[in-house]
Amino acid sequence: MLFFFMNSGFEFLSLGELREKKSYKWRQYGGNTIPLTVAEMDFRVAPAITSALQDMVNRSDMGYLGANPEIQEAFAKFANLLWGWQISSNLVRVGNDVGSCVQEILTVITQPMEAVLINSPVTNFAKWILESGRSIHDIPLIEKNMNYTLDLPAIEKAFEAGVRTYLLCNPHSPVGITYSKRDLSVIAKLAKKYGVTVLSDEIHGALMFDAQDFTPFLNSCPEAGDVGICISSASKTFNISGLKCAIYLSQSSEINEELDRIPESARHRASLFGVVATTAAFESGLPWLLDTIDVLEFNAQHLISQLAMNLPQTEYRKPDFGYLAWLNFGDFNWLEEFAKADVALLSGEIYDTNIPNFARLNFATDPAIMRLVFDRLSI
Ligand SMILES: Cc1ncc(COP(=O)(O)O)c(C=O)c1O
Description:
This protein is of the alpha/beta class. The protein has 2 domains: 124 residues, Aspartate Aminotransferase, domain 1; 232 residues, Aspartate Aminotransferase, domain 2. 40% of the residues lie in helices and 14% in strands. The protein is built from 15 helices and 15 strands. It has a 5-stranded mixed sheet with strand order 2-10-9-8-7, sandwiched between helices. It has a 4-stranded antiparallel sheet with strand order 11-12-15-14, with helices on one face. Strands 1-13 form a two-stranded parallel ribbon. Helix 4 runs parallel beside helix 12, helix 5 crosses helix 6 and helix 13 packs parallel to helix 15. The protein is globular. Pyridoxal-5'-phosphate (PLP) binds next to helix 5.
């Protein structure tokens, strides 16, 4: 496969270069293992980010983070460009990462041990909620042949029974689905009716294979603006999770009063490097992102035939975005076979101990490395 990149600076990293990395993904196993695990992409970051960071290094600009209107404006412009979502930039708040923003927000909008609604199988949410001393109210997604949907009647019942906080994964990871504007509006209207606050984690929202598929929760209908908080970051989209910067915002003055109670110390925990890199990404990273999405969609599509040829019992639905494939291995002993091939996946058990034999495969890598993975598996 030949890709024609449009001078965006997109580049694959070779296995040799990847093995030199100090990140968790590449340190966890070492040796000959190919890790298709942690949500990090095996690509060089966008040149706009590299030069912004190099400039800071050259000027020894490594101090504490202060007021930074540039990131607020950059996110507002990016959201308008990608999704036609108009926000006033002064509403954008900065935090350390999405997980810690969720935890800080939970401490001001909920009471200890209060229930927070999630839809399993879902990324890290249960851990964050439990670590914050809150409890989980799970309304699992409904699955039919690997197609997942929200159980809206059960969600309404939970609201009716008194659950006041909903941590929504929009779009949903790891199952890889987006929600329609209609479904998001239903959630917003129910939330308004029952006095529920919706925290919408939108970290994967800019990685859509078709940008039209994604609706920011706050932009779904007027009621969403009254009940929602958007939490996002450039960390997944632009591959800069180690730089520690996330953003969150609400368009409701009542919710903003609550968010103002987040301690000042938490507001300074983002890193200056993260803020500058995120600003550069939102301002100038789009050409790189479009090339990245082309590669990701190629790998997502190609995985259908790679699985059909090599592991035909595996169930897989091509995700709507991003780089995580959610696989149902059925009766196949994937743990043993992948261990023999020296390829690591994340077991689905980390999301939900009740689901047997699922795994998450990160395909954000050179298609040549994906070929190597299946060559190893077919021996
Ligand atoms: C939906 C979702 N939110 C948040 C995170 C973690 O983000 P952060 O590193 O900013 O806490 C992940 C990481 O895998 C994720 O999939």
